[in-house]
Design goal:
Blueprint lengths: L3 H13 L2 H64 L2 H17 L10 H28 L3 H88 L14 H58 L3 H17 L2 H20 L4 E3 H18 L4 E6 L9 E3 L4 H11 L4 H5 L16 E10 L2 E8 L6 H8 L13 H13 L7 E5 L5 E8 L9
Parallel strand pairs: 2-4
Antiparallel strand pairs: 1-3, 4-5, 5-7, 6-7
Helix pairs in contact: 2-3, 2-5, 4-5, 5-6, 6-13, 7-8, 8-9, 10-13
Length: about 525
């Protein structure tokens, strides 16, 4: 069981030495003084306000009566002039309001000013009675009577205004005698208020300095030792406790921190070395990932379906056999222009004009290959050709995909077109259609390739729009279309709307590319 002496020591250390308790006691004294001084100031100010209000209350009341009488003249004159029902209603309302304001009973006193006020109330009653008589005469259309009454009212109103000014003048003279007392009382209150403010300010400053000294002395000692500790000297002796309990806790925590830092400094250095090695390895991995991504883009661009090349060369040879050399030369020239167009530009992003020119060459070759079974439509805006840029080789693979896959059910008919005589037409075969359009919708360049072919299964569309990586993708899938989709995802990451496919079994296919013209393509180098 703790002894009384030990209890007193603990109480002194934990309670009386507490900075919060000391500040609470000091602040309590200041608050008590402030409360009493504020209460006295409020009481004095309230007395002054009451004295001031009582001295001017009667003058304000008489002034409002004068203003109400002046306002009463307007509807009265309007009614006597025009006999307006609205004016009559206002007369009745304001007359009743004036009568309610007047005191119901005015005692007779020896004060001359109060006697004059009593007489003034009777005069106002008389004025209102005359007004009511004038209204009655107006209703009876007695012009001479209400004109005479109005003249009497005007003279009575002038007399009432003179009496009001006289009463206000007498009351003002009476208040001048009390003004000196009011000024003296106000000066005393202001002087006492100043003394209270000075006293409380000095007491607050004194308590502040005393409290600040109890805190700053240990803090100065603590900061001096902290400077030594920051220089790497962990052998400094522990700081001794002071006279404030809270600061003692800070000092004890500082001593523990010093010892803990000395124990953990080597571990921190070891962890920092491990972290630097990890960051270097991560940087190498990021560089390698960028190189792999760059190679994937070039690998996608380098993929070429030889089917088109072989069919085109075969068509050229058939033309050379069946027809003359002129048409063959024209066909081979278009083919050479297309190949030259494909290989001459090594840029990843090109103007739209570059794609349209290549598509025109490609359309010329297709028209020779399928002159009677395939219709080609190219619709574009000349203003967009140089102002908009697109990834290279994104339109021609889509058209090629339509020729190879969208019309596969008519492949036999298309293959036999060149073998038919010139005056013969394949009436049994329905014509195929490919439409390529470019337009600007808000901030997006919209490129669409539409066909009326056999369409795609939804499973194929889902795989195309969610492609695997190059090493996981199937080579048996539609390489031209898959090539374009993967490159669009590479160049515009985080934009799922950049490409969409609308299709159905036997309903044709629409492939739409929407490129944000305000966004630069993402190209890893």
């Amino acid at each position: 069981m703790i002894s009384p002496r030990d209890f007193l020591k603990v109480f002194h250390r934990r309670f009386l030495r507490s900075f919060r308790v000391q500040m609470l006691i000091s602040v309590s004294w200041v608050v008590v003084i402030l409360v009493f001084s504020t209460a006295y100031i409020l009481y004095s100010a309230k007395n002054l306000q009451t004295l001031s209000d009582s001295s001017f209350e009667q003058e304000r009341f008489i002034k409002t009566l004068q203003e109400d009488l002046a306002a009463y003249q307007e509807p009265l004159l309007e009614y006597l002039s025009t006999r307006s029902s609205n004016a009559l209603a206002r007369i009745l309302i304001e007359s009743q309001a004036l009568r309610n304001k007047l005191p119901a009973y005015s005692p007779i006193t020896a004060n001359k000013t109060e006697l004059k006020e009593r007489e003034l109330y009777f005069l106002i009653h008389a004025y209102l009675n005359l007004a009511e008589q004038g209204v009655e005469e107006k209703r009876g259309r007695n012009i001479a009577a209400y004109t005479r009454i109005y003249d009497e009212m005007a003279g009575l109103l002038a007399y009432i205004n003179e009496e009001i000014e006289a009463v206000n003048t007498e009351r003002f003279s009476t208040q001048l005698d009390a003004y000196e007392l009011f000024i003296a009382e106000s000066g005393t209150i202001q002087f006492l208020n100043l003394l209270f403010i000075i006293f409380v300010s000095l007491l607050s400053i004194l308590l502040l300095f005393q409290s600040a000294e109890r805190i700053t002395v240990p803090l100065v000692r603590l900061s001096a030792l902290a400077v030594d500790l920051s220089s790497g000297n962990f052998e400094i002796p522990d700081i001794q406790t002071g006279s404030v309990a809270e600061m003692d806790q800070v000092v004890e925590a500082f001593n523990r921190m010093k010892n803990d830092i000395r124990q953990f400094i080597e571990e921190i250095r070891w962890q920092e070395n491990i972290k630097q090695e990890y960051m270097q390895e991560k940087l190498r991995n990021l560089k390698m990932e960028g190189l792999v991504r760059h190679m994937e883009i070039y690998a996608l661009q380098a993929q070429m379906n030889p089917h088109f090349l072989f069919n085109t060369l075969n068509t050229g040879m058939q033309l050379a056999i069946v027809e003359g050399a002129d048409k063959t030369a024209e066909f081979m020239e278009d083919l050479a222009q297309l190949f030259r167009h494909i290989i001459r530009n090594k840029e990843l992003i090109v103007p739209l004009r570059h794609e349209i020119e290549g598509l025109n060459y490609y359309f010329s070759i297709l028209k020779v290959r399928f002159p009677k079974s395939l219709d080609l439509v190219l619709d574009y805006d000349e203003a967009l050709l140089d102002s908009c840029k697109v990834p290279v080789s994104i339109l021609q693979p889509l058209v090629e995909n339509c020729v190879i896959h969208a019309f596969r059910e008519k492949a036999a008919a298309k293959a036999s077109v060149l073998a038919l005589p010139a005056d013969n037409s394949p009436d049994a075969a329905a014509r195929s259609l490919i439409i390529v359009r470019t337009e600007l919708a808000q901030d997006r360049l919209v490129l669409s390739v539409r066909d009326n072919g056999c369409g795609m299964p939804l499973e194929t569309v889902e795989k195309l729009l969610h492609p695997l990586s190059i090493d996981e993708s199937s080579m048996s899938r539609v390489m031209g279309l898959e090539n374009v989709i993967q490159r669009l995802y590479f160049f515009y990451p985080g934009d799922p709307a950049v490409v969409s496919i609308e299709t159905g079994e036997g309903a044709g296919t629409v492939i739409t590319i929407r490129i944000d013209t305000k966004r630069e393509p993402c190209i890893a180098f």
